[in-house]
Design goal:
This protein is of the alpha/beta class. The chain is built from 18 helices and 14 strands.
Length: 458
């Protein structure tokens, strides 16, 4: 039964007491670079603002134009794909000529805070009497350090679900309802693996669960891979590992990591087994290939990804692709799981315009901008009333977002491992995970990597 809007939003109020863990809105965005100004800057000040998600660019262009008209402060927006974006942010810290304000991520901002590269905004918040309690409970707290200093205002939040091609489900004798309550375990994959196998088709038209299936000549994969996931696995495997009882660390700003946990190892080993069985593309095949493009083109039947991709995927429907959404599978814990993330903006500590930068950050943290973002039906804004507008906008497009909200309803979200030294941790875990997903090492090899990660904090 679809969850009512009222019950969905009531469920959001319980976020503060959930076992929160976090996510990363990286995947599915373009690698192109696009810049746009907000119009005449009467103040003579033009802020440089960066973001990585091309799907959100039009909404923030509209916000910037309204902001400039109201304040006289110009905003030049640059959108760059994920990898190049973070390279530019870090280079800007060194050269001093980076963005004045940039979209930040919980995975990285602790490192920026430790290095003194971003401004605490407490003095601005207090001087303006800004209400940081207007957001969904728990979101604003994610942007404070252990000392209680605040570095951002929540803009949005997201969870993970499965995007699927309904036409391929029909061809396989399945419906969206059939796969909306899948179960998973690392021993045999449960009904989740059964469906993935059923949806996989070789070049002779034989399905993965039928005799004669040729795993070495696959035409349509049951599910796409989208890289190894590094140490986070946000859209790839984190929801499976969490549903198996694993957590990356002991909570925000923790110095402990659990990559030596057998529950993670058996999850990753099962995940790689899909490659061995021909149900999921190898690391080599999918490198540099966008999961969204493959789903839309009919080369994969399903892909796990974040709510920030909903508007884009559903705008791409065609005669061969009818998009649908289903929740992540129920794991050995008896529950589903999903990373839960909320983005915010950081102000570069070296900006020449800290006061104007705050005004822009504050504007993006209000309904003036978040209602605009909601109208584009791309992400879920952080302010509850704006969230409701986004849900309505998606509903107007015929999109049922319950598969994302089921995690909010049931309290099955978990936070990204918020901790310092993210870059160094990634330098250890990303190649290790690549090695595992290339078939060169078992997942148990993560135990030795975990020792190296822990050594970073000791």
């Amino acid at each position: 039964m679809p969850i009512s809007k009222k019950s969905r939003l009531a469920g959001l109020a319980g976020i503060a007491v959930m076992p929160l863990f976090l996510s990363a809105c990286a995947s599915g965005t373009t690698d192109s670079t696009e810049s746009a100004g907000s119009g005449e800057a009467a103040s003579g000040v033009v802020l440089e603002y960066g973001l990585w998600d091309s799907n959100q660019l039009p909404a923030y262009q509209e916000c910037a134009a309204a902001f400039t008209a109201e304040t006289g402060i110009g905003v030049n927006i640059e959108q760059i794909g994920w990898d190049d974006y973070w390279a530019k942010v870090r280079n800007g810290f060194i050269t001093g000529d980076g963005y004045d304000v940039f979209t930040s991520h919980l995975a990285f901002y602790p490192e920026f805070v430790s290095n003194g590269q971003v401004l605490a905004i407490d003095s601005f918040v207090n001087a303006d009497g800004f209400d940081v309690n207007q957001y969904h409970p728990g979101l604003a707290d994610l942007w404070t350090n252990p000392a209680g200093e605040r570095f951002g205002l929540p803009k949005d939040f997201d969870t993970i679900a499965l995007f699927a091609n309904e036409d391929m489900l029909t061809a396989a004798g399945l419906t969206t309802a059939d796969i909306s309550n899948l179960t998973w375990n690392p021993a045999d994959g449960g009904t989740y693996e059964d469906v993935i196998a059923r949806l996989t088709v070789d070049t002779n038209g034989v399905r993965g669960d039928e005799p004669g299936f040729d795993k070495n000549s696959v035409d349509v994969y049951g599910i796409w891979m989208e890289g190894s996931g590094g140490g986070d696995g946000q859209t790839q495997w984190s929801f499976l590992a969490a549903a198996n009882g694993w957590s990356a660390n002991e909570g925000p700003w923790s110095n402990t990591y659990n990559y030596d946990d057998p529950r993670l190892h058996e999850t990753i080993d099962w995940w790689y087994s899909l490659v061995e069985k021909g149900y999921m593309p190898s690391l080599d095949i999918q490198q540099g290939v966008g999961w969204a493009d493959q789903l839309i083109a009919g080369k994969t039947a399903m892909a796990s990804n974040g709510s920030w991709m909903t508007g884009y995927i559903f705008s791409q429907g065609n005669e061969n692709f009818t998009p649908t959404l289903v929740p992540t599978p129920i794991g050995p814990t008896g529950e589903r799981a999903s990373m839960y993330n909320g983005l915010a903006d950081n102000i570069f500590a070296g900006t020449d315009h800290p006061n104007e930068a705050w005004q822009w950050v504050k504007y993006m943290g209000t309904t003036d901008c978040q209602d605009v973002v909601a109208s584009y039906a791309v992400v879920f804004p952080a302010i509850p009333s704006s969230t409701e507008k986004a849900v309505a906008a998606m509903g107007d497009l015929g999109i049922n977002v319950d598969p994302f909200y089921v995690h909010i309803e049931n309290g099955t979200t978990f936070l990204f491992p918020i901790a310092d030294k993210k870059s160094q941790v990634s330098e250890l875990l990303s190649p290790a995970m690549d090695n595992i997903m290339a078939g060169n090492a078992p997942a148990s090899s993560l135990s030795s990597v975990n020792e190296q990660v822990l050594a970073l904090f000791n």
